[in-house]
Design a protein that fits this description.
Blueprint lengths: L15 E3 L21 E3 L4 H8 L3 H4 L1 H10 L11 H16 L2 E7 L6 E7 H7 L9 E3 L2 E5 L4 H20 L7 H25 L1 E5 L4 E2 L2 H10 L2 H18 L4 E4 L6 E4 L5 H6 L3
Antiparallel strand pairs: 1-2, 3-4, 5-6, 6-7, 7-8, 9-10
Helix pairs in contact: 1-3, 4-5, 6-7, 7-8
Bound molecules: zinc ion (ZN).
Amino acid sequence: MTPNNPLKQYFRQPSIYIRLPSHGEFYPPGTLDMPPNGELPVLPMTAVDEISYRTPDALFNGAAMVDVIQSCCPNIRNAWAVPAMDVDTILIGIRVASYGHDLDTSSQCPACDHSHEFTVDLRSLLDRIKTPDYASCVRHGDLEFYFRPMTYQNLNENNQLQFEQQKVMAMLPESELADSNKIQGITDALKRLTAITVQALCQSIAMVRTPTAMVTEPEFILELMTNCDRKVFNSVRDHIIKLKSDAEMPPLSMTCPECQHGYEQAITLDMTSFFEAAS
Ligand SMILES: [Zn+2]
């Protein structure tokens, strides 16, 4: 940016300030520039931002979203490092800054199938996002597990790996291979999916403590998780799932205008529809 541009005052200005659920924790040094009051300015998207997230592959590989986040939240220096619990807040902030706080959406009543339109105030969603308790640990005998959230980069890589294996599994039944080869192919794909799941769990484990050692090396933790008692594995897995669901947006309470049935509607920030709906 040129320092003496007389047009500078016409550049985009922050239009909303957000508080990160992580409070800026878990960001490696240099990846976040946290303002003293804890409120991050969010700028509206530029035309270039808008084009980049609409590129078909952009959402899938995450790189374009990283560019958009860094463009609209300049305090975030490296969006790959963003902990998973902050992602929804940041995306909602960008949506509000760029298109306003009303999101028109629809909901179908599970009792009578009646579908009705409604408007969500995205600012009220921001207030409802909670901070999961990453300070708690899981104990098993004299083993202690400590946790951390996955990064945006972890999330993206896992999604891509999972997608590839699911694609293999979906294509195999239709393929020209002999039946025995198909079964082998599906078994292999399932094994790889399980390996991806275990790897993803390990990304959420910050440290394992024993009476004599504090282990943070990912390769040692992965070996432990593939060789431990299933009871240990399951309690670690359940704890990670709980932390993840604590960070999710609570569902909205709805009443069907047709039959008055009360139900809960989950809010998903499916990126394509989330941003496209506003244009
Ligand atoms: Zn109904």
